[in-house]
Amino acid sequence: MQSTAPKNVIHIEGARHHNLKNLTLDIPRDQLVVVCGPSGSGKSTLAFDIVYAEGQRRYVESLSAYARQFLPQMDKPDVDKVEGLSPAISLEQQTATRNPRSTVGTVTEVYDFLRVFYARLGKFHCPQCGKPIAAQTTDEIVNTVLALPQGTKFMILAPLVEHQKGTHKDLFAKLKKEGFARVRVNGQLYSLDGAPELEKNKKHTIHLVVDRLVIRDAIGKRLTDSVELALIRGDERLIVSVLDSDGPGRDIFMSTLSTCPACKISMPRLSPQLFSFNSPQGACPTCNGIGSVEYFEPDLIAPNKGLSLNKGGVIPWKSAYRQTQYGPMLKKLGTAHGFTLDTPLADYTSEAWHALFHGHAATGWPGVVPLLDLSMQQAGVWDHWTAQFRQSRPCPVCDGARLRPEALAVRVADKNMFEFSSLSIQRALDWLEHLEFIGHETRISEPLLKELTHRLGFMVNVGLEYLSLGRNMTTLSGGEAQRIRLASQLGSGLVGVTYVLDEPSIGLHPRDNERLLQTLRSLQSRGNTVLVVEHDEPTIRHADHVIEIGPGSGWLGGEIVFQGPVDQLLKADTLTGKYLRGDLFIAPPDTRRTASTVLALRNVATNNLKNLDVTIPLGVMTCVTGVSGSGKSSLVMDSLYKHLLLHMGQKVNNPGKIGGITGRELVEKVISIDQTPIGRTPRSNPATYTKIFDDIRKIFAGSKEARTRGYQPGRFSFNVKGGRCEACKGDGQIRVEMHFLPDVYVTCEACKGKRYTAQTLEVEYRGKSIADVLDMTVRQAREFFANHPALVRRLDVLGEVGLEYLRLGQPATTLSGGEAQRIKISRELGKRNLPGALYILDEPTTGLHMHEVGKLIRVLHALVDKGATVIVIEHNTAVIMASDHVIDLGPGGGEHGGQIVASGTPEQIIASPDSATGQFLV
């Protein structure tokens, strides 16, 4: 039967995946299409779980069964028909890698071209003296020697032994047997018949005299033969010892390898592998190409300074030290430094603290850290338990460069590989464009420079000119990582592809939105379909076609409330249409809070921050803003957040560089609330995460039937044995492996998907079983448990953050990022008072509709009203205007940022002529 769907659309029929309600729609091809709607309404389900997943699944199924077993299995979406699909490429925020070896350069594949660039055009420079090193051919060596003045006497020497111990009698005997007559030992000439007796335990240098010559005509053939012989005996190295008439002369060191003539340091052959930190040939041998090493941190080993050694102050050693092998040494150390085993660690002097952890030679105490290092070396593994006492820091050998010294000794013009990779993308482009090559290098450089400048240019086009190629991907925001992959796709030049993007505007300052839109347009103008899940108003206004899903979230959504061009959306009676028209808007608060206490950071120099002194008011809502790359995350996450955690004795990696923090004793706890899932398995759900399920299980355990049967609250948990169905282990479904086909999940026949045994389900509260309650929405549960004030209060908090539509037992894997974040906030809101609590949120409006941003603002202010401090990193103008205090960084990104442009109320930011943010707040 021939398809009746138009050829210029992606035709979808009967989409019921997740909360979609049997949708049928046509998505125009080769256009910029925006999918919008409330958080959890089904936008990502339509774009990613149906359009992208079905396109990928069909491609995988076109391969052989043998090939499919090596590819990840893809589930078939719950949809009747999808037609008009083209190959699909997904650019999601969640796919940001956690691999510490992934950098901006490796992900964009610029690094691959860069390795060839340095291997073909780089020149070795001696790591010690810094002078250029060049390998020579045999003919070049001969010509260099022949260029000496006529009549010059010289010797051709082959270096055999360089600073090695031994008598070397066997070597002398072997050379004599082979017909050689002379050697130079430790700078003195000897006949092999009168070879010196060498001391066994001293280092010696032995050079074989291959030939003695005088520069005159017709010595070319003999000289060439001697040079070739010397190179063979000297392992591609030789010495031309020029004999001056009035002195000992001078040595000219030559090699067919790259070797420094002054320092005698030889270099390996240039190859692309030498510049790969993922290859043994190029990786720093100390850190194995990671760029950092782990070490034992005393503040983590002994976080509670109020304890003594005998009270377990050093966590790895919890037993009393009098009863251990270290007791006598520690007592001796204490006598030397004025402490006993009962002295609190807080009373130690700095010298005593250093001696305890790093050793004291006079008393023979090795130190806590060396002892832990030794135990790890003996065990041969860094176990998970000791990980809590370790932090990472830049490698002491390569200083974070990841490459071995030989690779770092190669330069193009004035920069080695690491120095180039540390430049911002814009500076790297400028440097490449000013390079000049001569001779055959010009032809070699042309294709490499073309690829490098093109790919770097694409990253500039998507607003990432402030990043460096060496920047670790784990340090990037979801939006930055997504735009990096977008830049890679721009370089691929594909046509006829469906690109599915998840909020590419996240992390992008309003100033830079236009460049992103131009990038999306360039993809679409090539003949590609660009399907964008987005809430950003400028992106929606620039779309060719808009699909709005709603009207609400969860089971209240899943319907198409509008589909068509933007001019029709502006007239539509939908949530998005009302905000675009201005019928609905988020009004700023009438008053601003003022702070009586502050946190003050001194001399913050993390990444691009320029020795800032920053004052953060406590007990108010502060928004840190600025253009992309201006240093917001460096200030809030790397400097403030990590150092507060360190002060509380918690493990952090690579804390920022600061001079100090005052007022940190006013912060009792610091919490970062992000959009990571509340659980990675279907077992996690809103009820378990918010502890609501604990109250519900107690209510069921208190019922008459449960008391009669002797059931405790644990009987009503699907995570432990007892009341759960053992056939499916409480999952409600069973996975059937299909090898090269996607795994099939079938409803458990024993419990019919209820998760519990029949006996457990017989216990009811007000006519409902525990499985029935898990299937309730927050709103329904609020009415059902109206007689339980404590439980109602927790459920009300979920309602306050706009999640009354969620089912209590909804698997965490089906929640959107915005829903997960609001669940985390609700858990904190459920606490009665929050003085001393500091909450940090990095771009919390990700995934939120304009209407939900208003709800988020009210929730954040509710946290502040309970005595907490809230710090938000955000570009959303509504959030900025709702803040009590704003810190605006800039003026640009990367090296052009790192300064405080303006600070104060939003009105003061608007009044600042230097603030790029203030222009968008008016």
Automatic annotation (TrEMBL):
Natural source organism: Pseudodesulfovibrio aespoeensis (strain ATCC 700646 / DSM 10631 / Aspo-2)
Entry's localization field: Cytoplasm
Protein keywords: ATP-binding, Cytoplasm, DNA damage, DNA excision, DNA repair, DNA-binding, Excision nuclease, Metal-binding, Nucleotide-binding, Repeat, Zinc, Zinc-finger
Presence of keyword ATP-binding: yes
ABC transporter domain residues: 592-922
GO-annotated molecular function: ATP binding; ATP hydrolysis activity; DNA binding; nuclease activity; zinc ion binding
GO process terms (BP): nucleotide-excision repair
InterPro entries: AAA+_ATPase (IPR003593), ABC_transporter-like_ATP-bd (IPR003439), ABC_transporter-like_CS (IPR017871), P-loop_NTPase (IPR027417), UvrA (IPR004602), UvrA_DNA-bd (IPR041552), UvrA_inter (IPR041102)
Protein family (similarity comment): Belongs to the ABC transporter superfamily. UvrA family.
UniProt-listed NCBIfam families: PRK00349.1 (NF001503), uvra (TIGR00630)
Any one GO CC term of the record: excinuclease repair complex
Highest taxon, organism lineage: Bacteria
Protein name: UvrABC system protein A
SUPFAM superfamilies (alphabetical): P-loop containing nucleoside triphosphate hydrolases
Ribosomal protein in keyword set: no
